[in-house]
C-alpha cells in the first residue's frame, strides 16, 4: 500500500514455469497488497508453481490470447477493490523492482497511468532487443505520437500501471483479444484524456523470455497503425470505431472467474 492506496500486481501468464518464481521473488511484498496470476491454458506447470508460491491463480480452460488474458487479469484486480493495478510479465523480461516507483506516480495523484519505457536511456538494444524490433518500435511510436498528439517514448512496453478509475472507465471488453490489446488500451487512455507518466526500464531478451515471432510482429504492427488511424478519425469526429464509441463495453467486475484450487 502506498499513500493508503491498495496496490495489486497482475501477471498474464503463458508457459512461465521457468521464470515465474524469479519474477515473484523480486516483487516488494511490503508495497504490493496482492498478486494475481492468470494462466492462459499453459502446457507447462505454471499454475502449480503459482499455487506453491501462494499467488492467487486463475486458469483459463482454453487459450484466450494475450488481450483476453489481460481482460481477466484486470477484472480480477477490480474485484479486490484495487486502487492501483500494475501488470508484470512473469517471464522476467522486465524487473519488478520498479513496481514501487510506478505505483507512487499514481498513488500521489500525479498521473493516472504509468508505463515503464525501454527507450528512455539505452535499455532496449543493450538488453538484447532484435534490431528489427527496435526500428519498428521507433517508427510506430513516431507514427502514433503524430496521430495521437502525445510525446510518449514508446507504446509497446508490457510493463504498465493504471489507476482504478482508468480500468473502470475504459471500454476494455470490446478491445482485441490478441497483442494489439496493449496498444488499444494506451490509445484509449490518451483518448479519454488521462495522464500517462513514464519511467526508464531495462529489459532482458533471453530464450525463456516471451517474445512474438516476425510474422506476429508484423500483424501487431498493422494493428497499431489501424488503432492510430481509428483514434485520429474518432478524435476528429469523422468516424468512431467500436472501442471509441460511447456504448463500448467496460469490464464487469461481477463476472465469475475460474480460480484455481478455490
Question: Which parts are unreliable, with pLDDT below 50 for 5 consecutive residues or more?
Answer: none
Q: On the 0-100 scale, what is the average pLDDT?
A: 93
Mass-distribution shape = globular
Q: Count the strands?
A: 7
Please summarize the sheet with the most strands: 7 strands, mixed
The helix/strand series, from N terminus to C terminus, equals: EHEHEHEHEHHEHHEH
Q: What count of structural domains?
A: 1
* CATH topology (level 3) name: Spore Coat Polysaccharide Biosynthesis Protein SpsA, Chain A
Q: End-to-end distance, in Å? A: 25 Å
Helix content: 25-40%
CATH class: Alpha Beta
**Would you identify the CATH architecture?**
Alpha-Beta Complex
Q: Give the helix tally.
A: 9
Q: What is the CATH homology-level superfamily?
A: Spore Coat Polysaccharide Biosynthesis Protein SpsA, Chain A
Percentage of β-strand residues = 5-15%
Strand order of the largest sheet: 3-2-1-4-6-5-7
What Rg is obtained from the alpha carbons, in whole angstroms? 17 Å
Going by helix content, strand content and strand pairing, the class is alpha/beta
SSE arrangement:
Layout (H helix, E strand, L loop, with lengths): L6 E7 L6 H6 L8 E6 L6 H7 L3 E4 L5 H15 L4 E4 L11 H9 L5 E5 L5 H4 L4 H18 L11 E4 H6 L11 H11 L4 E5 L13 H22 L27
Parallel strand pairs: 1-2, 1-4, 2-3, 5-7
Antiparallel strand pairs: 4-6, 5-6
Report what the structure shows:
With 262 residues, this protein is of the alpha/beta class. It has one domain: Alpha-Beta Complex (Spore Coat Polysaccharide Biosynthesis Protein SpsA, Chain A), CATH 3.90.550. Helix content is 37%, strand content 13%. Strands 3-2-1-4-6-5-7 form a seven-stranded mixed β-sheet, with helices on both faces. Helix 2 links the parallel strand 2 and strand 3. Helix 6 packs parallel to helix 9 and helix 8 runs parallel beside helix 9. The chain is globular. The mean pLDDT is 93.
Amino acid at each position: 500500500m502506498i499513500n493508503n492506496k491498495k496496490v495489486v500486481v497482475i501477471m498474464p501468464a503463458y508457459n512461465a514455469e521457468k521464470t515465474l518464481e524469479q519474477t515473484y521473488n523480486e516483487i516488494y511484498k511490503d508495497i504490493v497488497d496482492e498478486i494475481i496470476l492468470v494462466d492462459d491454458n499453459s502446457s507447462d506447470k505454471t499454475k502449480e508453481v503459482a499455487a506453491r508460491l501462494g499467488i492467487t491463480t486463475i486458469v483459463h480452460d482454453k487459450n484466450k490470447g494475450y488481450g483476453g488474458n489481460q481482460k481477466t487479469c484486470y477484472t480480477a484486480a477490480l474485484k479486490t477493490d484495487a486502487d492501483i493495478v500494475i501488470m508484470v510479465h512473469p517471464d522476467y523480461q522486465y524487473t519488478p523492482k520498479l513496481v514501487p516507483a510506478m505505483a507512487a506516480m499514481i498513488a500521489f495523484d500525479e498521473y493516472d497511468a504509468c508505463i515503464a519505457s525501454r527507450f528512455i536511456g539505452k535499455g532496449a538494444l543493450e538488453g538484447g532487443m532484435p534490431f528489427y524490433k527496435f526500428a519498428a518500435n521507433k517508427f510506430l511510436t513516431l507514427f502514433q505520437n503524430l496521430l495521437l498528439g502525445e510525446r510518449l517514448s514508446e507504446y509497446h512496453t508490457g510493463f504498465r500501471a493504471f489507476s482504478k478509475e482508468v480500468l473502470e472507465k475504459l471500454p476494455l471488453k470490446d478491445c482485441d483479444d490478441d497483442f494489439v490489446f496493449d496498444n488499444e488500451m494506451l490509445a484509449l487512455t490518451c483518448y479519454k484524456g488521462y495522464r500517462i507518466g513514464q519511467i526508464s526500464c531495462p529489459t532482458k531478451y533471453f530464450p525463456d523470455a516471451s517474445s512474438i515471432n516476425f510474422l506476429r510482429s508484423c500483424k501487431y504492427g498493422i494493428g497499431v497503425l489501424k488503432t492510430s488511424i481509428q483514434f485520429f478519425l474518432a478524435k476528429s469526429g469523422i468516424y468512431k470505431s467500436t472501442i471509441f464509441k460511447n456504448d463500448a463495453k467496460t469490464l464487469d467486475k461481477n463476472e465469475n472467474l475460474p480460480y484455481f484450487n478455490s
